[in-house]
């Protein structure tokens, strides 16, 4: 995969298929980890790769339940022996060790995405419990957890601040710094996602095809210019959406509820609108009003 494609394809994945990871996959991820840069090349990291089902169950008392359902959970630790070796100033050396592990984690996430897998950094976990439940030797201190597996579906991109919002330029600033970064249009096909929740996403010009999204909730999403074909949105709710220039073909919208949506120039072919309403108005009347 091209690096640029990989960079934008990587997403935090939190739902996994139940197949085990192969030895080659685990080796590829760990090879990526150990090839990350590290301060003075001390490589002050240690990785615990948990695939044993019984041990994985213990993550339920350490962090969010879904983590234990991943085929592999990596515990990313610092190595105190390497920290001691590095320099006298322990606080400084520990800071380097954490930076080393962060770079290793990003390499792991990119390597996973490169071979069709996905993972997520978990910073919200009970560190002490993790050490005791997994009998982690004292010299290794967990920094984060990383469940990895084959994703059940594509994960939409989360919105990003623009370059200008997060950068101070001392000198020239690039002309395009105030524009949101260019994104590949999002595509999602053949997925079973009833009761899904989508919030705060920038997905203009996306393609959605053959998906069950019944009883789902969509809030604050830019979907302008997107197309939807063979989608079940029955009983779903939509709030704060930009749906201008969107196209719908064979889409079930029955009993769905729209509030505060922009629908300018939306087109509908063979759609089921029964019981659907926009801001309390019958959807067909509302669409006519929007397109006037
Ligand atoms: C240091 C760090 C800690 C994180 N901790 C968690 C976590 O505890 N639980 C979780 O679901 N996601 C966690 N994430 C994932 C972020 O929520 C995610 O990276 C962010 O929302 C951007 O989405 P993306 O990775 O799909 O681009 C963490 C990410 C980082 C970098």
Please characterize this protein's 3D structure.
By secondary structure, this protein is of the alpha/beta class. The protein is 26% helix and 27% strand. The protein contains 8 helices and 15 strands. The strands form 3 sheets. A 6-stranded mixed β-sheet has the order 6-8-10-12-14-15, covered by helices on one side. It has a 5-stranded parallel β-sheet with strand order 5-7-9-11-13, with no helix packed on it. Strands 1-2-4-3 form a 4-stranded antiparallel β-sheet, sandwiched between helices. α2 crosses α5 and α4 packs across α5. It starts with a helix and ends with a helix. The site of flavin mononucleotide has 9 residues, from loops.
Summarize the structure.
With 292 residues, this protein is an alpha/beta fold. It has helices at 3-9, 23-34, 53-57, 80-86, 90-114, 127-133, 163-166, 283-291; strands at 45-50, 72-79, 118-119, 140-149, 187-192, 197-202, 207-212, 217-222, 227-232, 237-242, 247-252, 257-259, 267-269, 277-278, 281-282. Flavin mononucleotide binds next to loops.
Throw out a few tags for this protein.
292 residues, alpha/beta, NADH Oxidase, 2 domains, 26% helix
Give the secondary structure arrangement, pairings included.
Elements: H1 3-9, H2 23-34, E1 45-50, H3 53-57, E2 72-79, H4 80-86, H5 90-114, E3 118-119, H6 127-133, E4 140-149, H7 163-166, E5 187-192, E6 197-202, E7 207-212, E8 217-222, E9 227-232, E10 237-242, E11 247-252, E12 257-259, E13 267-269, E14 277-278, E15 281-282, H8 283-291
Parallel strand pairs: 5-7, 6-8, 7-9, 8-10, 9-11, 10-12, 11-13, 12-14
Antiparallel strand pairs: 1-2, 2-4, 3-4, 14-15
């Amino acid at each position: 995969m091209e690096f640029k494609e990989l960079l934008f394809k990587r997403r935090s994945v939190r739902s996994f298929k139940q197949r085990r990871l192969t030895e080659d996959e685990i080796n590829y991820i760990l090879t990526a980890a150990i090839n990350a840069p590290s301060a003075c090349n001390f490589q002050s990291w240690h990785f615990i790769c948990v695939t044993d089902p019984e041990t994985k169950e213990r993550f339920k008392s350490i962090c969010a339940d879904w983590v234990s359902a991943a085929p592999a959970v990596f515990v990313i630790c610092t190595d105190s022996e390497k920290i001691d070796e590095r320099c006298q100033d322990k606080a400084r050396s520990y800071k380097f060790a954490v930076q080393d592990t962060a770079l290793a984690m990003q390499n792991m996430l990119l390597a996973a995405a490169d071979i069709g897998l996905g993972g997520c950094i978990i910073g919200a976990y009970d560190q002490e419990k993790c050490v005791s439940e997994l009998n982690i030797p004292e010299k290794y201190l967990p920094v984060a957890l990383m469940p990895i597996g084959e994703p059940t579906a594509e994960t939409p991109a989360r919105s990003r601040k623009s370059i200008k919002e997060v950068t101070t330029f001392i000198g020239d600033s690039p002309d395009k710094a105030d524009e949101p970064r260019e994104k590949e249009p999002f595509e999602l096909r053949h997925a079973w996602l009833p009761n899904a929740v989508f919030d705060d996403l920038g997905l203009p010009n996306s393609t959605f095809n053959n998906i069950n999204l019944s009883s789902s909730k969509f809030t604050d999403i830019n979907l302008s210019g997107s197309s939807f074909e063979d989608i079940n949105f029955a009983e779903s709710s939509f709030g704060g959406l930009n749906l201008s220039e969107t196209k719908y073909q064979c889409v079930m919208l029955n009993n769905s509820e729209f509030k505060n949506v922009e629908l300018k120039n939306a087109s509908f072919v063979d759609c089921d609108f029964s019981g659907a309403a926009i801001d309390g108005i019958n959807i067909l009347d509302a669409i006519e009003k929007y397109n006037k």
